[in-house]
Amino acid sequence: MRRLFPLSAPTAPAQDAPVDAPEGADRTAGPDDGVTDREWTLDELAAAYAYPAADDPVRSARPGWLRANMVSSLDGAAHHEGRSQPLSGDADMRIFGVLRALADAVVVGAETVRREGYRPARARAAFAERRAAAGQGPAPAIAVVTAGLDLDFSLPLFTEPLVPTLVLTGAGAPEDRVRAARAAGVEVLFAGEGRGVEPARVAAALAGRGHTRLLSEGGPRLLGQFAAAGALDEMCLSLAPVVAVGDAQRIMDGPAVAVPERFGLVSVLEESGFLFTRYRRF
User: Fold this and answer.
1) 3-state secondary structure of 92
2) Which of 76, 129, 131, 139 could lock onto 121 through a cystine, CB 3.0 to 4.6 A?
3) Apex CA 112: angle with CA 107 and CA 117, to 5°?
4) Cβ neighbours of residue 57 under 8 Å, at least 6 residues apart?
């Protein structure tokens, strides 16, 4: 893996650097400057994807920080035959794991839970000390966004979580399904007055449970709703070097916005042709 943006400041070449280095060779990059192509440690990836501090001005007046992590093919497909895994790769999965390990809660739509076969997040020994120092539990909670609560509460996601799975819905959700969720030991949070969730209220609802570092893994409909509501703070997009064709969704599928919202580029990493980009809202 190597960092394409931002680049480190150039350093003076070593005294014994060969004067006949091949044309185009990097004469200044050292093994630890991020530019050299090598496997990054989990600590380095965690530092590269750290959440903004609570007192960072970029988080002013926001109850939490909602980032999204999605993968896309070169032609814009968010999945292949209904699943994102065919677009992924080893480096993408490492970053996927790091982003989960940094989060308080993973916010995901009910359809994605069903299609991808979601299971509880697991504790990772490599991040245990970091999470404890940040006041986090051993693993992120999974927070499922759903209007109808059409979920199988006998699945491991709800019966075997290390950290209790949450369900986010609206106050007008079917009462029998709310009772079924609670009977199964699931905590139900209301983030809307109608049947479904109001995307702009999700961060505050989860912040009330102490979850301020939020990660959304989609799907495209939920992510589109977050973006259209101005609730998305950061986009971590993995661009896979594959072409999927077909009629797969884009990474976002939501209501149109009056004016496209501009995000600023934070970083770009590359490995094996994959580009790992990170953007923040202005």
Assistant:
1) helix
2) 139
3) 105
4) none
What pLDDT band is residue 44 in, cutting at 50, 70 and 90? very high
| DSSP β-bridge partners for residue 264 | 280
The alpha carbon dihedral of 163, 164, 165, 171 has a sign of negative
* More confidently predicted of 247 and 205: 205
- Whose CA is closest to 130, among 45, 33, 59? 45
3-state class (DSSP) for residue 91: helix
SS3 letters across 101-159:
HHCCEEEEEHHHHHHHCCCCCCCCHHHHHHHHHCCCCCCCEEEEECCCCCCCCCCHHHH
More confident: 34 or 273? 273
Closest residue by Cα to residue 201 from 169, 165, 167, 166: 169
118, amino acid identity: Y
pLDDT digits (tens, 9 = 90+) for 74-126: 999 998 887 888 899 999 999 999 999 999 999 999 999 998 889 999 999 99
What is the Cα–Cα distance from 148 to 129, expressed in whole angstroms?
Answer: 38
Cis peptide before 170 (omega within 30 of 0): no
State how far the Cα of 236 lies from the Cα of 9, in Å rounded to an integer: 24
Is it the case that residue 30 has pLDDT exceeding 50? no
Q: How confident is the model over 1-21, as a mean pLDDT?
A: 64
- In this prediction, residue 33 carries a pLDDT of 63
**pLDDT computed for residue 95 by the predictor:** 97
Query: Which residue has tokens 């939490």?
Result: 64
Beta bridge pairs of residue 108: 144
Bridge partners of residue 141, in order along the sequence: 105
Whole-number average pLDDT of the chain: 90
Determine which helix (DSSP H) or strand (DSSP E) holds 72, and give its type and residue range.
Answer: strand 65-72
3-state secondary structure of 227: helix
